[in-house]
Design a protein that fits this description.
single chain; 295 residues; alpha/beta; globular
């Protein structure tokens, strides 16, 4: 069931069966636009709770993100959640972006600090006249309109976090400031997710935390990305996928690993699944087939 403006995202996520949601990124050219809309059309029949549209490092895709998110709101039955980052914007610019979303009929935002253009591990320097933390952006969105707000969560801890406990404290602070739900960074050990949820619950916060799923279709690419964001690909997963030389077999094993992770998460009480689609539908649909998720 898609989220409506009047109900909290937390209520919708927890209403009925497991929540399903998808993440897309703004395309760079006309071919990318066509690919994105093919993916949206293929996944829309599954009636996701929401779809999110990312924001480039340093705010580089701001206009495209606003445009794509508004088009989803106008032309589909889907509930779009627009990413918004602190980096590269003054407070005044962020207020204008939020106003633009309201005018476009977009009432859900994902409030993020954002990554420096040099990468997630680079030193963080706030924009002059801007905001410092995602917490500040949550507070701004709450004060600027009738927004439903999501935030990021990190099962293995944010790459810049002093500790897992400190990282949990940040997520709890964002929830208490008005965030209604969280979506995790990709991860490959279910226990990391369950441990994060336990840390947050121990602090008295019960917002739904959706696990972010990224199937491994190219092991080297995933390992490189994991090094950038602080995500570990377990040795047993590396061994399973490395056992295959054929790209088709590698893909099939990556889909199987992702489907097994999804099943373990759902069986363990996760409220749903959030899929990083990379603007393609095929891998997500293959995971659905393995999980017997039907239209």
């Amino acid at each position: 069931m898609a989220a409506g403006r009047g109900r909290s995202m937390a209520e919708v996520i927890q209403d009925g069966g497991p929540s399903i949601s998808f993440e897309f990124f703004p395309p760079k050219d006309d071919a990318g636009v066509e690919r994105l809309w093919r993916a949206i059309q293929a996944l829309e029949p599954y009636q996701p709770t929401f779809v999110s549209v990312t924001y480039g490092a340093g705010g580089t895709t701001r206009d495209t993100t606003v445009e794509i998110t508004g088009r989803i709101a106008r032309e589909t039955s889907l509930t779009p959640v627009a990413h918004l980052t602190c980096i590269g914007h003054t407070r005044e610019e962020l207020e204008k972006i939020l106003d633009t979303y309201t005018e476009a009929g977009v009432h859900h935002v994902m409030a993020l600090r954002g990554d420096p253009p040099e990468g997630p591990a680079a030193e963080w320097t706030p924009t002059e006249g801007g905001l410092t933390y995602a917490l500040d952006l949550v507070e701004l969105a709450r004060s600027r309109g009738d927004f439903r707000i999501g935030v990021a969560a990190f099962p293995e801890g944010h790459i810049n976090a002093a500790s897992l406990d400190a990282d949990a404290d940040v997520l709890v602070a964002k929830a208490r400031a008005g965030a209604e739900f969280a979506v995790t960074q990709m991860f490959y050990r279910a226990q990391d997710y369950f441990d994060l949820v336990a840390r947050v619950r121990d602090r008295g916060v019960d917002i739904p935390i959706l696990p972010g799923i990224m199937p491994i279709l190219n092991l080297n690419a995933i390992q490189r990305q994991g090094e950038l964001v602080g995500t570990v690909v377990p040795e047993e997963v590396v061994a399973r996928i490395s056992a295959h030389d054929d790209p088709v077999a590698v893909r099939a094993e990556g889909i199987a690993v992702a489907a097994e992770l999804c099943r373990e998460l759902l069986d363990g009480g996760a409220p749903g699944l959030h899929f990083y689609t990379l603007n393609f539908s095929k891998a997500t649909l293959e995971i659905f087939e393995a999980l017997q998720i039907r239209v």
